[in-house]
Automatic annotation (TrEMBL):
Pfam families, sorted: PhaC_N
Record localization: Cytoplasm
UniProt-annotated stretches for the region Disordered: 1-61
Keyword Acyltransferase: yes
Sequence ranges assigned to domain Poly-beta-hydroxybutyrate polymerase N-terminal in this UniProt record: 166-337
Top-level taxon of the source organism: Bacteria
Protein's name according to its UniProt entry: Class I poly(R)-hydroxyalkanoic acid synthase
Keyword Cytoplasm tagged: yes
Biased composition (Basic and acidic residues): 27-44
Keywords: Acyltransferase, Cytoplasm, Transferase
Main subcellular location: cytoplasm
């Protein structure tokens, strides 16, 4: 998410750095000294020794005091870095051996049997293996030829190029410097070779293949030359310019992160003192008008003289804080909705502690969403609302719609909008890797050790792994190798402000949704009723994002096909967050529209129209159709529900 600042150093120095001559190595001494004895006669006739061309002792005489001081400074910094790294390593090993029960057990990711199965299949197809190896060899021969040509002629075409959007190679040195360009292309050839073999394996269970492919990618990403000081031109340049201070600062950052995690690396992605919730973020004016043990209900102040008669109730995910929908003024969805004339209510979920460990998915529907419906009805006098569910909040909303339908109360929700929400988990993406039997047992063990809740750090680490180059390795390079302090960035601040998860709720959700896909199959029993999505007839607007790695759009589309009423599916550009939170004023990205809902998402895309900019305007117009007439604006706290406190309330301020 965060974009690193480009180095302010002179880029052209990298060529000098990379091609600096090393002192000649002294010849090894012969193990038989008698064989090399020289007689006085031979010594007299021995030709005069020629100076070593790689090292000129007189060059030290040309160093001025500033040069000597700089060398001394760098030597001291490098020595200090070496000593600190040794201490960090010993401390980390000691804490690892202590085996804290609340830390993840690496045994849960033991994939030796899966790797063995996949690679057995790969090597058992000698033709495919030989073709892959031949392709790799051709690539290296072409790379050697092109690199030689570039040294001689100054230019050549690349043999292999990074994927578009791969930010690891943004530095100009990776393309302008022939040595670093060759290092980059060599890595990419190996990456494509390994990933191609795993991706193309046949005769393996798809779940096993997906797991091995994911873990192989994690290893390949970790071995990128960008992640090592001696093969990253930006780090080499920074080391020369700062006289090694970047390495000592980086080790200090690493020590601080290890201390913050109690021996477990708590990678800092942003300045957590850079924002204050309620002032810089979540600052849209409003009041908390209802509170129980699992949520607060916020009613936002109107920004128009009249509002639509039917109120809008938003159910964000409880896996994160709600203020992703109310960031700064320029990209706040709730503020924009208020400006469009909607009467906006929003659920702010509690950050649960061990006392709520036994709360269930049904509790979050009954005591959360349904109680919020009752509160909005009491405050406005309206019998129904337009409801919005984001991510896991959308899965809950879909389940609630089916439950209301089964109870004969479907008219309590007039329309439903889903942001990046899955109701069919058959194609749920890489998160399926974290719900196999081993991980399921490990998550249960962790929650037991943590008092019945899953800590926010575990959730954050899981999601970061899905985009490790952007959310892990870029910060390893910036924080630890370049020695920089993370900058204040609102989206990363929100991403780091994680919430805990109640044990009973979380395990039930993982098992019934991700592992067994029971909502889509119509197999969930709740309150004596079977939840069937095809019975749901209310109008639905379903948003998905093209690059969403948490709720992949093919998965969302499968869910859209499960409902029994009219469904408008819309695909936005970007990913799980930026694809949803895309203020029209930003003029960013694009979206695709197609009012039909054919059998497959491929057919939908083929007939869809691409429209520049945000999709919010189209959604607003759809909402207008289901929102009734204009009525005088409702002021928070002046209806039947009185103000408890100012927005954003108290629950959102609780840190994990």
């Amino acid at each position: 998410m965060a974009e690193e600042k480009k180095s302010t150093g002179t880029r052209k120095k990298s060529a000098k750095i990379a091609t600096a001559r090393k002192p000649a190595r002294p010849a090894a001494k012969d193990q038989n000294p008698e064989a090399k004895k020289v007689t006085p006669e031979a010594e007299a006739t021995k030709p005069a020794a020629t100076p070593n061309p790689g090292f000129d002792p007189s060059s030290f005489n040309a160093l001025n005091p500033a040069d000597i001081e700089a060398l001394d400074h760098m030597s001291r910094n490098l020595m200090q870095a070496a000593l600190k790294s040794q201490k960090l390593m010993s401390d980390s090993m000691r804490k690892a051996l202590e085996g804290k029960v609340e830390f993840p057990d690496t045994g849960a990711i033991n994939s030796t049997p899966e790797f063995g199965e996949v690679w057995t299949k790969i090597v058992s197809d000698p033709e495919k293996m030989m073709n892959a190896q031949a392709g790799l060899l051709r690539g290296y021969l072409d790379l050697w030829t092109n690199t030689t040509k570039r040294f001689l002629e100054g230019k050549s075409d690349p043999v292999v190029s990074p994927e578009p959007g791969d930010k690891r190679w943004r530095s100009e040195d990776w393309s302008e410097n022939p040595i670093f360009d060759a290092i980059k292309q060599s890595y990419l050839l190996n990456q494509n070779f390994l990933m191609g073999l795993v991706h193309g394996v046949e005769g393996v269970d798809p779940a096993v293949q997906r797991k091995v492919e994911f873990l192989t990618k994690q290893m390949v990403d970790a071995m990128a030359p960008t992640n090592f000081a001696l093969t990253n031109p930006d780090v080499i340049r920074e080391t020369m310019q700062s006289k090694g201070e970047n390495l000592t600062k980086g080790l200090a950052n690493l020590a601080s992160d290890l201390e913050a995690g109690g021996g477990r690396l708590a990678l800092t992605q942003t300045d957590m003192e850079g924002f204050k919730v309620g002032q810089d973020l979540a600052a849209t004016e409003g009041k908390v008008v209802f509170r129980n043990e699992i949520f607060e209900l916020i009613h936002y102040a109107p920004l128009t003289e009249t509002v639509k008669q039917r109120p809008l109730l938003i159910a964000p995910p409880w896996i994160n804080k709600f203020y992703i929908m109310d960031m700064r003024e320029k990209n706040s969805m709730v503020r924009w909705l208020s400006q469009q004339g909607f009467s906006v209510y929003l659920i702010s979920w509690v950050n649960p502690g061990p006392e709520l460990k036994d709360k269930t998915f049904q509790d979050y529907i009954e005591d959360g969403l349904f109680v919020a419906l009752d509160a909005v009805k009491e405050d406005t006098g309206e019998d129904s609302v337009n409801a919005v569910g984001y991510c896991i909040g959308g899965t809950m909303l879909a389940s609630a719609l089916a439950l209301l339908e089964a109870r004969g109360e479907a008219d309590r929700i007039a329309s439903a909008t889903f942001f990046a929400a899955q109701t069919d988990f058959e194609l749920a993406g890489d998160l399926l890797l974290f719900v196999d039997d081993a991980w399921f047992k490990e998550i249960n063990r962790l929650m037991e050790a943590q008092g019945g809740v899953l800590d926010g750090r575990t959730m954050s680490d899981t999601f970061n792994l899905l985009r490790s180059n952007d959310l892990v390795w870029s910060f390893v390079v910036s924080n630890y190798l370049l020695g920089r302090q993370p900058q204040a960035f609102d989206l990363l601040y929100w991403n780091a402000d994680q919430t805990r998860m109640p044990q009973t709720l979380h395990l039930w959700y993982l098992d019934n949704m991700y592992r067994k896909n029971r909502l889509s199959k119509g197999e969930i029993e709740m309150g004596g009723h079977t939840l069937r999505l095809d019975d749901v007839k209310v109008p639905i607007f379903m948003q998905a994002s093209r690059d969403d790695h948490i709720a992949p759009y093919p998965s969302v589309y499968r869910g859209a096909k499960r409902f029994g009423g009219p469904v408008r599916f819309m695909l936005a550009g970007s990913g799980h967050i930026a694809g949803v939170i895309n203020h029209p004023g930003a003029n960013k990205y694009q979206h695709w529209v197609n009012k039909d809902l054919p059998d497959t998402v491929e057919e939908w895309l083929e007939a869809a129209e691409e429209v520049p900019g945000s999709w919010w305007l189209e959604w607003r117009d759809w909402l207008y159709e289901h929102s009734g007439k204009d009525v005088p604006a409702r002021v928070p706290g002046e209806g039947k529900l009185k103000a408890i406190c100012d927005a954003p309330g108290e629950y959102v301020l609780v840190r994990s």
